[in-house]
Amino acid sequence: MGPALEGISYTVPCIVPCIRPLYSERENWKPNGFGYQLFGCEVGIRFPVVKLLDYANQTESLLEDPNPFALVTAAHLFTRRTKGDPEQRYAAKWRLAKLLYERNWDKQRIIDLFGVIDWLMQLPTDLEQRLLHEVYTLERKVIMPYVTSAERCGVEKGRQEGRQEGEAALLKRQLARRFGALPDAVQVRLTTADVDQLEEWAIKVLDAESLDEVFDQRPQ
């Protein structure tokens, strides 16, 4: 509560520091305030601005910075730079994924950051499948040297189950996008298939004209 002024008390507002990151493609647009006026009264706020385009030539520095937000900024810049070039975007996304594991961050931080990167840097289905395979391989290399033989069996079983569920869900979305609602029998096959079988079907999706061609159920 502020001091009394002619019998009127007032509350001093709490000021919370705020930095606004800008994603706009307009290079010279940097709004650093907001306010409005009414009947001679004016209310407003000013804030510092961080424009991501200002870092367009500092990608390598961002990749070396241990701050997680630097990696997200690099992902945004890579997304802009690789627009219309899926192969280049794949290479950039794979580079960022490897950095996540090299930093030795905890599992939840890796998951959260990869979720942001994955949302920004979307890939065609075939390249996304390739990237996921590379990530699975990398995870095994990172985790396996630090567990005992007994633990390794349990970890591998859990990872295989998790991988099977993930690949089955991804393939289900791909099939539904191409061929519409999936019959119950197809969904059962996806749920019970192993990882190798799911990967084989995922490759067939690229050229198949029907569900029968994906699952080799052509009429005799």
TrEMBL record:
Question: Can you tell which superkingdom this protein's organism belongs to?
Answer: Bacteria
Q: What Pfam families does this protein's entry cite?
A: DUF4351 (PF14261)
- What name does this protein carry? DUF4351 domain-containing protein
**Location of the DUF4351 domain:** 160-214
